[in-house]
Amino acid sequence: MNQDTAAGAPAAASAALDLRDACVIAAREVIARQGIENLSLRDVSRQLGVSHQAPYKHYPSRDHLLAEVMRRCFEQFAAQLDAREHFADPHQDLESLGRAYMNYAQQNPLEYRLMFGTPWPTAAVNPDVVRDAAHGFDILRQVLRRLHGSGTEQAERVDLDAMFIWSTMHGLVGVMTGNCIDKLDLQPQVLGRVMQHVMDRVAQGLQAPV
Q1: What pTM, to 2 d.p., does this model score?
Q2: Which of 10, 33, 37, 209 is the most exposed place for a label (fewest CB within 10 A)?
Q3: DSSP assignment of 121-153, as one string?
């Protein structure tokens, strides 16, 4: 192999990697501008200024690209949950987790809708997407195991409470980011206390006998 070939190989690999990532970024921009229904590889290639065939080198179809977009959203979501302020007290840690969940949803509304409001394309049902989608839920499980224990007898309680908390937070996000919240004639102090009130009620619910 001559020096020119050796020097060109890393550059080619870098260009391929850049195109793969660039397709994901462009797809998110197309979705934000035109809606997920109008996402196509042709629009992505047009956005990037490359040939219509270029994205197919990495994504065999529009659904494969959408699956990768969704996977990266789940990865980013779980990373933000992991990066929350951690507490030795599991109750405090659970509240910190809830705030991290809400912050992500409010700061990344498009990504949140893609994760939890978009039907998965067939291409999304693969181990990588499933793994990253489950990571955020497993973080919640880990905190609840510190509350209830990690034995097999506690596993059902952990999963039930995880579903209770997740559905509560998901509902709160829907209300707080919906179109009607500013039509409810709520006092500013009520809106300011909603998150803490919900987390306090969740804590009370976790302590109640079942």
Answers
A1: 0.84
A2: 209
A3: PGGG-SHHHHHHHHHHHHHHHHHHHHHH-SSHH
The length of the chain in residues reads 210
**pLDDT digits over 50-65, tens only?**
998 999 999 999 999 9
CATH class of this structure's domain 1-59: mainly alpha
Structure tokens at 201: 């009620």
Task: Count the neighbouring beta carbons within 10 Å of the beta carbon of residue 143.
Answer: 23
**Domain boundaries defined on the chain:** 1-59, 85-207
Amino acid, single-letter form, for residue 193: R
Per residue in 92-112, is it b (16+ CB within 10 Å) or e — as a string?
A: ebbbbbbbbbbebbeebeebb
H helices then E strands: how many in the chain? 8, 0
Nearest C-alpha neighbor of 62 from the set 74, 45, 49: 45
